[in-house]
Amino acid sequence: MTQSLQGRTALVTGSTSGIGHAIALAFAREGARVMLNGFGPPDQIAAARAEVASVQGGETPYSDADLSKPEAVRKMCEDATAALGQVDILVNNAGIQFTSPVEEFPEAKWDAILAINLSSNFHAIKALLPGMRARNWGRIVNIASAHGLVASPFKAAYVTAKHGVVGLTKTVAIEVARTGITCNAICPGFVRTPLAEAQVGPLAKQHGVSEEVALTDFLLEKQPSKRWVEVPEVAAMAVYLCGPNSGAVNGSALSIDGGWTAS
To answer: Which of 32, 80, 93, 263 has the fewest CB atoms found within 10 Å of its own CB?
Structure first.
């Protein structure tokens, strides 16, 4: 069977766990050579690199760049270009979260979320887009969120950043529209990851209900499907957007949210 990304190269940020790691693995299975980025315990990073390496063959390049710093983002892109020869695909996935009422929101948290969730996307795109233009081919996939399309209380920085990601996506898409490059955003709802699943128990305790009720009635209250978005569903969308039949999809904010933003 032909691999849809055979011969392509990809940099996926925030890819040592969760959604980013699933995307990196899916790309490798489709024939791409992938570079990882992210934080975590050394054994977790080693395991993530080994898992991708087992699929793509050879050592998996990795960057520990702190994406809150523009110079570190630029260096990561330079390192990816050196390690991979070129970067055909950029997936901006790294992100952090913090919740608080606006009037109590720590300014340092606001600055960090905007830097990592939004500004890092801009800096990486700016660094890698010239090479994509020179080759007249590239795929940029920004992992936004349902919160890039709608708001929820107590998430001022996250909602602002993800709305910004969608706006950045549209702007870049228009600028590259007459080239072989596309730029799209994926907007997941609540995705089943260890960090997300860890919220269920405390919610059940807080509201005095079972974990099943806490999941459907509180955590997933805005998702009409009342089920998690699964990590492979997001990864599959990323593969499609970078594959051979996606050239007309450009500037889209694609919801994977169980009907949340349809309500």
So the answer is: 263
